[in-house]
């Protein structure tokens, strides 16, 4: 009886180092000060104190990660940043529970600590429901809850709601400044307060920069290609270069209800349409619905980015490794520039593309033209591929790009893992639009 291959996930060393730094290395210097200076009477409290410090530093890291540092995006990807953000936030909550249970406080220190704690509970709960789309696939009822919440809370409101983490940080800072045996540790208090001030100042500057000094563009054309997809061409001279497969955040500052930024994949290569970027936007929430209904030539658009890992993921692997693409619906948008950029390399590329309706098979003519010149045959159909059809495309030594709805991404990843494909040879961005 043949043995089933087991896929072993190998994480890039850069990602391992980032996670190790965020979880362990960065908080360590802050914990060293109390361990070195706290009086003998309170040394039995060092373990819960350390837990509280780790929780607080992780909260500060969440604030910093909320700035979407581009250099970090190019290492672990923005989805990876969001996962790290979620793990740090949830981990901080767990440590705070332990800290409060083992080391109760009194008076104003107790009040500020408890308010910070319940604020953090609310933030984590909201983030799990509203932001962690992968949970929908594990707990289907959450999709219904999220859909209802999205109707009640508009996109901009939820963005501001998540910034309540700043309130939790300030309250937690007040908490340890009010604990009598901690406030006497001058070196610790100064270090923590200065670090807090720097992180909050950086966050404020980044948000101001993105709002006031973002690259400004203008909608050149808006074409509705189906009853829920619009193709938009945005001219943005300041954004003249990006990597294939990248995405940017768009906001429309002069349109009601569209002041918050939203991620969209760029569906063309730099210079392909002059200074313009092409987007295919499907209705998926209040922001995209407004964009679908109101998009028109002449609208001002602010562009933040670019972000993305497609080009760097492909560059990490052998230059001759075959590429297999599984795409669904508007998930094809980052794939089009990716395969076009690889034209002329004689690299085997297989595209498995599906959509719910025929008019949702975007850029089918471009795919056919690409296949004619490159001797590749894109596989396109309306409706899902069978598991057998998907598995037939598995190729020795290939790398796999998966782009589409979260359910499709989950199913394809599971299928590949069952057939022994390591996770390190798969790439996907769960919020491709």
Automatic annotation (TrEMBL):
Fetch the InterPro entries from UniProt. FAD-bd_8, FAD-bd_FR_type, FNR_nucleotide-bd, MRET, OxRdtase_FAD/NAD-bd, Riboflavin_synthase-like_b-brl
| E.C. numbers | 1.17.1.1
**What keywords sit in the KW lines?**
2Fe-2S, FAD, Flavoprotein, Iron, Iron-sulfur, Membrane, Metal-binding, Oxidoreductase, Transmembrane, Transmembrane helix
Q: Which cofactor does it need?
A: FAD
Q: What class of enzyme is it?
A: oxidoreductase
Q: Which GO terms describe its molecular function?
A: 2 iron, 2 sulfur cluster binding; CDP-4-dehydro-6-deoxyglucose reductase activity; flavin adenine dinucleotide binding; metal ion binding
Q: Which Pfam families match?
A: FAD_binding_8 (PF08022), NAD_binding_1 (PF00175)
Give a yes or no for keyword Iron-sulfur in this entry. Answer: yes
Per the record, the domain of life is Bacteria
Segments traversing the membrane: 48-67, 79-103, 115-139, 160-182, 188-206
Question: Is the keyword Isomerase assigned to this protein?
Answer: no
Q: Which residues form the FAD-binding FR-type domain?
A: 212-313
Q: What is this protein called?
A: CDP-4-dehydro-6-deoxyglucose reductase
Q: Which organism is it from?
A: Bifidobacterium animalis subsp. lactis CNCM I-2494
């Amino acid at each position: 009886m043949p043995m089933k291959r087991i896929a072993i996930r190998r994480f890039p060393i850069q990602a391992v180092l980032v996670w190790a730094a965020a979880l362990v290395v960065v908080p360590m210097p802050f914990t060293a000060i109390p361990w070195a200076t706290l009086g003998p009477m309170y040394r039995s409290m060092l373990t819960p104190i350390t837990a509280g410090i780790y929780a607080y530093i992780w909260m500060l890291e969440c604030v910093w990660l909320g700035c979407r540092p581009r250099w970090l995006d190019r290492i672990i990807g923005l989805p990876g940043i969001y996962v790290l953000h979620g793990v740090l936030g949830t981990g901080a909550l767990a440590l705070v529970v332990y800290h409060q249970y083992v080391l109760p406080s009194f008076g104003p220190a107790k009040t500020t600590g408890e308010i910070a704690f319940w604020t953090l509970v609310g933030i984590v709960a909201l983030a799990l429901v509203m932001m962690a789309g992968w949970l929908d696939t594990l707990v289907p009822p959450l999709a219904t809850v999220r859909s209802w919440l999205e109707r009640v809370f508009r996109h901009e409101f939820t963005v501001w709601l998540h910034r309540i983490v700043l309130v939790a940080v300030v309250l937690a800072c007040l908490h340890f400044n009010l604990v009598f045996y901690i406030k006497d540790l001058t070196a610790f208090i100064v270090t923590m307060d200065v670090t807090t001030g720097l992180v909050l100042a950086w966050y404020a500057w980044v948000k101001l920069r993105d709002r006031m000094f973002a690259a400004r563009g203008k909608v050149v054309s808006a074409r509705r290609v189906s009853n829920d997809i619009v193709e938009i061409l945005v001219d943005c001279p300041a954004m003249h270069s990006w990597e294939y497969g990248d995405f940017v955040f768009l906001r429309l500052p002069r349109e009601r209800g569209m002041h918050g930024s939203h991620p969209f994949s760029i569906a063309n290569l730099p210079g392909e349409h002059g200074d313009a970027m092409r987007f295919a936007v499907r209705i998926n929430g209040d922001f995209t619905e407004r964009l679908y209904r109101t998009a028109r030539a002449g609208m001002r658009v602010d562009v933040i980015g670019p972000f993305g890992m497609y080009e760097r993921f492909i560059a990490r692997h052998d230059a001759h490794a075959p590429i297999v693409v599984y795409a669904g619906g508007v998930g094809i948008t980052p794939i089009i520039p990716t395969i076009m950029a690889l034209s002329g390399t004689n690299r085997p590329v297989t595209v498995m593309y599906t959509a719910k309706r025929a008019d949702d098979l975007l850029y089918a003519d471009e795919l056919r033209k690409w296949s004619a010149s490159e001797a590749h045959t894109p596989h396109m159909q309306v409706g899902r591929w069978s598991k057998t059809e998907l598995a037939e495309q598995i190729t020795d030594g290939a790398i796999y790009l998966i782009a589409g709805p979260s359910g499709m991404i989950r199913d394809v990843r599971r299928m590949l893992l069952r057939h022994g494909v390591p996770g390190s040879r798969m790439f996907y961005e769960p919020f491709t639009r």
